[in-house]
Recover the amino acids of this structure.
């Protein structure tokens, strides 16, 4: 008995269907660019180490699944930036996204940035270069420990940053290239309030803001003092109008809720309101 050959028309239809299916699969393929930093590269094949490379995926993949499909265990990771913004592991990979993946303690203080952890791992400390005095005062206003001296030289800044695990803030990229500086961020903005917004957004500091607890001049934590202890140091109008006072244990400066403070409160509330919106795209990964 002769075997019946499938008719040519049916065969052609089958091929067309396969081609359609292949085309649909290719068309549905999305691409993201990944770059892994420091020792995370050990998990990658040599051609992908230390360089940005394209990862193809289908829709609906979380960044955690994508990272692990590339061979890097998520337990090694402390920070994921997608298009310059920190994201958590459940973030769904977007077509065209640029994803930077960092291990613990690489390059910047990843604790405040990282949303892969439920809460900051430790207190955020800063040291700022001599040109960033106003930014230091603003950071202190938000309650951050911000060391600054106008005459600190590069060597001292690098040493303090390294020894005290302080994030070094500077506009000088060269300073951040020093070998001992492992926690650093180059500030892009030039105007102090905008620098503050940049740093708060970029390092995702919203959860760590505790305003009006530090001396803006010395960086020390303020102490509450009874009115009678400071009454003789106050201008008469302040003595008449205010009841709550705090004092810096170092410089003895007395703080109260005046117009200056109300201006700052506006700045803080503006910042916090901005925190509810997506962070600005700075187009750059940390150095
Ligand atoms: Zn003080």
């Amino acid at each position: 008995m002769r075997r019946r050959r499938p008719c040519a028309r049916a065969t052609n239809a089958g091929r067309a269907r396969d081609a359609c299916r292949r085309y649909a699969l290719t068309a549905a393929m999305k691409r993201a660019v990944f770059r892994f930093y420091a020792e995370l590269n050990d998990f990658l094949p040599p051609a992908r180490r230390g360089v940005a490379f394209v990862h193809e995926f289908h829709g609906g993949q979380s960044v955690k699944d994508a990272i692990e499909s590339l061979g890097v265990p998520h337990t090694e990771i402390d920070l994921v930036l997608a298009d310059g913004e920190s994201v958590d592991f459940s973030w769904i990979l977007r077509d065209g996204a640029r994803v930077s993946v960092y291990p613990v303690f690489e390059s910047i203080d990843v604790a405040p940035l990282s949303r892969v952890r439920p809460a900051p791992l430790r207190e955020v400390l800063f040291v700022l270069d001599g040109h960033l005095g106003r930014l230091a005062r603003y950071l202190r206003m938000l309650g951050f420990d911000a060391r600054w001296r106008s005459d600190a030289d590069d060597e001292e800044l690098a040493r303090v940053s390294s020894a005290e695990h302080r994030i070094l803030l500077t506009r000088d990229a060269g300073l951040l290239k020093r070998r001992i500086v492992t926690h650093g961020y180059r500030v892009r903005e030039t105007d102090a309030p905008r620098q503050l917004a940049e740093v708060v957004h970029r390092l995702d500091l919203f959860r760590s803001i505790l305003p009006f607890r530090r001396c803006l001049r010395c960086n020390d934590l303020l102490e509450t003092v009874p009115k009678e202890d400071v009454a003789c140091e106050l201008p008469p109008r302040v003595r008449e109008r205010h009841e709550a006072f705090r004092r810096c244990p170092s410089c003895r400066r007395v703080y109260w809720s005046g117009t200056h403070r109300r201006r700052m409160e506006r700045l803080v509330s503006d910042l916090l309101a901005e925190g509810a919106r997506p962070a600005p795209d700075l187009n750059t990964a940390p150095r």
